């Protein structure tokens, strides 16, 4: 029984069944669904106005302002990316991959009444031009809890092969 309990208890000592953690996990799953459906406008609405979306090259970096990243989007850049991916004139929109992702192995790192930091693993399969590509990474979501709606404040996707040459994506991680 101790082993089962330890698997359900996170690093922060908060069980995965804590209502705040459940809310955060549900938001992450909702985000994955919207991304796989390429509903980028609804996806963007999950973010706080000060929210950032980051895919670093160096997986050990914690501060992203002064380093090279694959993606480092604040609200303005995130919305510009969405326009490029949905207008139909950019290669990312015309030749976009279809994706199916699984997000699992949730570990709450920080839990308070107004914020949850949740670590997870993501496996994404992208299908494009008769080929499947696998994108695998550790993900960290910082989620602001609010009565008016929970929002993503920061999402960091640390790809396991981030220092290699990634194929053209045509989708969001």
TrEMBL record:
Pfam families: Ring_hydroxyl_B. GO terms for molecular function: dioxygenase activity. GO terms for biological process: 3-phenylpropionate catabolic process. Keywords: Dioxygenase, Oxidoreductase. Gene3D superfamilies: 3.10.450.50. InterPro entries: NTF2-like_dom_sf (IPR032710), Rng_hydr_dOase-bsu (IPR000391). Transmembrane segments: none annotated. Belongs to the bacterial ring-hydroxylating dioxygenase beta subunit family. This is 3-phenylpropionate/cinnamic acid dioxygenase, small subunit.
């Amino acid at each position: 029984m101790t082993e089962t309990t330890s698997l359900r208890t996170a690093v922060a000592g908060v069980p995965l069944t804590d209502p705040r953690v459940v809310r955060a996990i549900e938001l992450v799953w909702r985000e994955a669904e919207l991304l796989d459906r390429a509903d980028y406008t609804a996806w963007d609405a999950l973010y706080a106005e000060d929210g950032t979306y980051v895919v670093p090259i160096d997986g050990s970096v914690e501060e992203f302002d002064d380093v090279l990243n694959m993606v480092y989007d604040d609200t303005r850049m995130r919305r510009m990316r969405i326009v490029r991916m949905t207008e139909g004139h950019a290669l990312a929109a015309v030749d976009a991959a279809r994706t199916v992702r699984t997000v699992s192995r949730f570990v709450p790192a920080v839990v308070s009444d107004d914020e949850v930091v949740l670590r997870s693993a993501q496996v994404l399969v992208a299908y494009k031009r008769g080929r499947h590509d696998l994108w695998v990474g550790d993900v960290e979501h910082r989620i602001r809890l609010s009565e008016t709606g929970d929002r993503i404040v920061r999402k960091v996707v640390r790809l396991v092969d981030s220092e290699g040459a990634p194929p053209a994506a045509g989708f969001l991680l």
